[in-house]
Amino acid sequence: MTIGWATKTAAKRKLSVPHRSITSMIYVSTASPGLEQDDFQAIMATSQRNNQRFGITGLLVFNGFNFMQCLEGDRSAANELLNRIRMDERHSGMTLLGHQETFGRQFSQWNMAGQYLPVKQGLAQEGLSAILADAAVTDATRTLFQSFRSLGAKTPEQ
Ligand SMILES: Cc1cc2nc3c(=O)[nH]c(=O)nc-3n(C[C@H](O)[C@H](O)[C@H](O)COP(=O)(O)O)c2cc1C
Question: Is 149 helix (H, G, I), strand (E, B) or coil?
Answer without folding.
Answer: helix
